[in-house]
TrEMBL record:
InterPro entries: HTH_17. It comes from Streptomyces acidiscabies. This is Helix-turn-helix domain-containing protein. Pfam families: HTH_17 (PF12728). Residues 22-69 form the Helix-turn-helix domain.
C-alpha cells in the first residue's frame, strides 16, 4: 500500500472524477500544492492541458489520466515492476 501526501488523490479517486475539474483538484493528483499549480499554469508549464474559463482554470480529466498514464484495472501502483532480468 502506498502512502499519499496529505490531500493527494489516489488512482481510484482520479478515475472517479467528473469530465472536467478545477486546477486545485488536478494539482492534488500530481501531488502539487495550490500555489505551485497556479504558478505553473501562469507560466504555461502545468503538467497537462488547461482551459482558461474566465478567471479560473479547468482541466479535462481524460487529459489528466493520460498524462499520469493511469489505466482502469492497473492497481494502485504500489506493486513492484516485474524485472526484465529473468
Amino acid at each position: 500500500m502506498t502512502t499519499l501526501a496529505r490531500g493527494a488523490l489516489g488512482r481510484d479517486e482520479i478515475l472517479k472524477l467528473p469530465a472536467a475539474i478545477d486546477i486545485e483538484t488536478a494539482a492534488r493528483a500530481f501531488g502539487l500544492g495550490r500555489t505551485t499549480a497556479y504558478a505553473l499554469a501562469k507560466s504555461g508549464n502545468f503538467p497537462c492541458g488547461l482551459i482558461k474559463a474566465g478567471q479560473s482554470y479547468r482541466v479535462i480529466t481524460a487529459d489528466l489520466i493520460r498524462v499520469l498514464q493511469i489505466l482502469p484495472g492497473q492497481g494502485d501502483g504500489a506493486e513492484p515492476c516485474p524485472s526484465d532480468a529473468a
